[in-house]
Specification:
heterodimer, A: 208 residues, mainly alpha, two-stranded antiparallel sheet, 5 helices, 76% helix, B: 340 residues, globular
């Protein structure tokens, strides 16, 4: 709301009360949003550090697992590895549940079943498969954390915009409007006072 | 010249056609699979490589060519060998049949399309009594097992039951390996020359297999009765009783060292979780024994077996180089996979 628009505000006592009530609510909201912004910022910072650590660990694990797989390919050939891999039973099945963090819905991944190859593969293939299976939990955790971080970052951006809008535009405008209405009311009071004084002078002159 | 002497003399000649270690090392340094195929054009593999369109040259295609060449080399020998030796050689080549049967079973177990399974089979139809076509057309593993009824690989009901209960092919594979080993050892009795050396070489291979099955099985937490069923009852330096003791729970480091001490590099790699290294180290033990015999018994039947082992090692080395190139592995890492 600009100064110009302030001119459109009806300079009445009721409007002043209304504007003051709105300012109080907005100030409360601003306080809550600032608190939310700080909390989100803190959470995001923690999440980012966590993601960096987990991702580094996951990438090291994946590197090692892929190295083992290629090494197995080189040792026994691709056909044997690929055919043995068909013995792996079951797929990785997960359930994605919603979890709320400060009103933001983030995914929580629950593992329902993992591929099973116990007592089904040869020693080399079992070694490689074990390395990959050990990484499933890490992989899901990183996925979960990254998605959570993205959602929190988006929410933080939104909250930041709201706080900035309130702090820099809405609240100052409202204050200006209140000041404008207050000044207009004061002027009207003064006019009224002057008018009454003039009337009183006229009445006194007529009587005398 | 006796039949065996002629066979040995031919093997000396055939050996010269194998790729020498220096050439293998230069192949390790080529840029990619295409350059490798190009370099191989000058070798015995050249004709087979020329037979496939150049844009279809890739790791899997080359791997199949190496296997085809190995089969050609192997099945040439019985044609020029005396009948008792030829019989032994055919028994030795049953390892290819076992690999194929396992491949078909794995495919059936995983519902892999017939064409895909067939593509990876070792091309031994003309030499084998097993009807792989029928096996490929069988509905499932149990159906395929039924087709093996009249062959040396027909498993007893208890093994089939074990597969049906657990869904694991390991008991069936173990049974085939044992059937192969016993058939091979039986055929060795018919060989009059160099039985000791040949016996030693075969048993070193069984030792290594048993080592990997036992220690690897324990490391991966397999059921002890299953591990026991994987053990081939022939050995050279590792006592079967010792293996069984370890499997059944005597797992102190002193027991493991005393039982598997002769194959320390294999056991160390397995315990460190490096199964592929263990496999390569195992092959190195076999190759080292083969080389010792090749040098000391250069003019006897054992030389023939060392030639076959060299053929197999060459195929593995070329496969390692091909796969290494396909996945962009450094020459140093590829060299670690090569047995020379």
């Amino acid at each position: 709301m600009s100064v110009g628009s302030a001119g459109r505000v009806r300079p009445t006592k009721g409007e002043l009360l209304n504007l003051e009530r709105r300012l109080k609510i907005l100030q409360g909201g601003l306080e809550v949003l600032t608190m939310k912004k700080d909390q989100l910022h803190k959470k995001l910072q923690g999440d980012i550090n966590d993601i960096i650590n987990r991702r580094t660990r996951l990438e090291c694990g994946l590197l090692e697992a892929y190295k083992a797989l290629i090494s197995a390919y080189m040792a026994v050939g691709s056909s044997q590895i690929e055919m043995q891999a068909t013995s792996i039973r079951g797929m990785l099945r997960v359930k994605v549940l919603p979890k709320s963090i400060m009103g933001i819905t983030v995914p929580k991944i629950e593992v329902l079943s993992k591929p099973s190859f116990e007592e089904k593969l040869g020693t080399i293939e079992c070694g490689v498969a074990d390395k990959f299976r050990d990484l499933i939990d890490d992989l899901l955790n990183v996925t979960e954390n990254e998605d959570e971080a993205v959602k929190i970052a988006y929410e933080l951006e939104k909250t930041n915009r709201k706080v900035n809008a309130l702090e820099k535009i809405t609240v100052p405008n409202l204050r200006r409007e209140i000041k404008y209405v207050d000044e207009m009311l004061e002027e009207e009071d003064l006019e009224e006072f002057t008018r009454i004084k003039l009337l009183r002078d006229i009445v006194v002159r007529r009587r005398s | 010249m006796s039949g065996v002497a002629y066979l040995v003399a031919r093997c000396h000649g055939l050996r010269t056609r194998l790729i020498p270690p220096s050439t293998l090392m230069s192949l390790v340094k080529v840029e990619n699979v295409e350059s490798l195929a190009e370099a191989l054009l000058k070798t015995e593999y050249g004709d087979l490589i020329r037979g496939i369109p150049w844009d279809e040259v890739n790791g899997s295609a080359l791997e199949r060519i190496f296997t085809r060449k190995l089969v050609e080399r192997c099945y040439f020998l019985p044609k020029i060998a005396p009948s008792s030796i030829a019989q032994f050689l055919y028994a030795y080549y049953r390892r290819f049949e076992i690999q194929n049967i396992n491949q078909v079973f794995r495919g059936k177990n995983g519902n892999t399309p017939k064409d895909r399974i067939e593509m990876d089979l070792i091309p031994i139809e003309e030499y084998s009594s097993i009807n792989f076509g029928a096996l490929l057309n069988s509905k499932n593993v149990v159906g395929a097992v039924r087709l093996l009824a009249e062959t040396p690989y027909s498993p007893p009901k208890i093994v089939i039951q074990s597969y049906e209960d657990s869904g694991s092919l390991l008991p069936l594979e173990a049974y085939f390996e044992k059937a192969y080993a016993s058939e091979l050892m039986k055929n060795l009795e018919g060989v009059s020359e160099d039985v000791d050396c040949v016996n030693r070489l075969l048993r070193v291979e069984f030792d290594v297999g048993n080592c990997i099955a036992a220690v690897g099985g324990i490391f991966h937490g397999l059921d002890s009765s299953l591990i026991e069923s994987l053990i081939i009852p022939y050995s050279y330096k590792v006592s079967i009783g010792g293996i069984v003791r370890v499997i059944r729970g005597e797992r102190s480091s002193s027991t493991i060292t005393s039982v598997f001490g002769h194959y320390g590099r294999v056991v160390d790699s397995l315990l460190a979780g490096r199964e592929t290294d263990a496999f390569i180290e195992g092959l190195k033990y076999v190759y080292e024994e083969s080389e010792r015999i090749r040098i000391s018994r250069a003019y006897s039947f054992a030389f023939v077996l060392t030639y076959l082992i060299s053929c197999e090692v060459e195929r593995r080395s070329l496969t390692s180089i091909t796969m290494g190139k396909e996945y962009g592995i450094t020459p140093e890492e590829i060299t670690a996979h090569i047995i020379i």
